[in-house]
Amino acid sequence: xxxxxxxxxxxxxxxxxxxxxxxxxxxxxxxxxxxxxxxxxxxxxxxxxxxxxxxxxxxxxxxxxxxxxxxxxxxxxxxxxxxxxxxxxxxxxxxxxxxxxxxxxxxxxxxxxxxxxxxxxxxxxxxxxxxxxxxxxxxxxxxxxxxxxxxxxxx
Amino acid sequence: xxxxxxxxxxxxxxxxxxxxxxxxxxxxxxxxxxxxxxxxxxxxxxxxxxxxxxxxxxxxxxxxxxxxxxxxxxxxxxxxxxxxxxxxxxxxxxxxxxxxxxxxxxxxxxxxxxxxxxxxxxxxxxxxxxxxxxxxxxxxxxxxxxxxxxxxxxxxxxxxxxxxxxxxxxxxxxxxxxxxxxxxxxxxxxxxxxxxxxxxxxxxxxxxxxxxxxxxxxxxxxxxxxxxxxxxxxxxxxxxxxxxxxxxxxxxxxx
Lengths: 155, 255
Fold this sequence. Notes:
The complex is a heterodimer. Chain A is mainly alpha-helical. Chain A has helices at about 1-10, 20, 30-45, 50-60, 65-85, 95-100, 100-105, 120-145. The model of chain A is unreliable at about 150-155 (pLDDT under 50). In chain B, α2 packs across α6 (about 120-145). By secondary structure, chain B is an all-alpha fold.
């Protein structure tokens, strides 16, 4: 949901199948191949030579600061995934309501831990889906009132 | 020498990252809420042992991770076999853990007469040390850095502080909602009354939440739902979320 929401906010079309397909899909996010390769090698093959190549690719394409920030986000989600799986938490209500189609399309409901999350009621789903765009508009309005943030990696 | 000295790094490392890593190591070196400092450092060591553990590899390859017995590699002092097993499973195969497994771990601990060895709260503290170590080690792996030597544990006793407002029902362990936080832990969620389950999940050990929030601010973004902000990172927010989502998928994490 966070990828979809952040890309919608940035007026970007993103193919979410990249989440499960990795580099076999094309999301439309700038530098995605380099980023996804570094993620894959760090998480799945931390001792491999390919990790060095993946690191160099991010460095070449996005620069040293982006490389460090990528490493930090990878580390952060190595943490978050284990907290979620180690405590058996369900998805939060908002995420449950907003990801019905994503979970269906990407077959995420086939993940072992999916049983822990019960679908939200239709009423709650409608309410959240109504409120979410309003929340996004408020964030956008607030952002426009502040100085825009431009990063080297901005797509 | 101060830990996390990146003066020889070919890439500039943000000060807030260095600060949060050093803070984590400092916390590991001190007695925790339910574990001694020696136990906390030993749990961190098991995260590293698990990476090359044959038993963990065999379990990971098996249809069910619960059908294979054996001994984990490494020197485990002063941890119990159960604590070691928990640390290894959380590190290498967390997505296949179950509530039944956790209940059995706690029951087993009590039936062995080690009443204080494992409770729901001490499990959360083990989890906190595991994930904090793994997060920092993964950062180092991604950048090609050696792992930071673990800190020397200090003497002292755990605080045994358990929040009074924890309630069961949402997760495998009781959690404290924003409105039920004890005054002594008022800072725990940064004043927010609503937080994501992944934060609340650690609330049986308030110091674990504090550590998580500090690390998350430095390693991810400051305000998760403010999609207008990339917290000053060199990546756009969609790039950050792409990385996050893919790490989750590779870990078979539904959340």
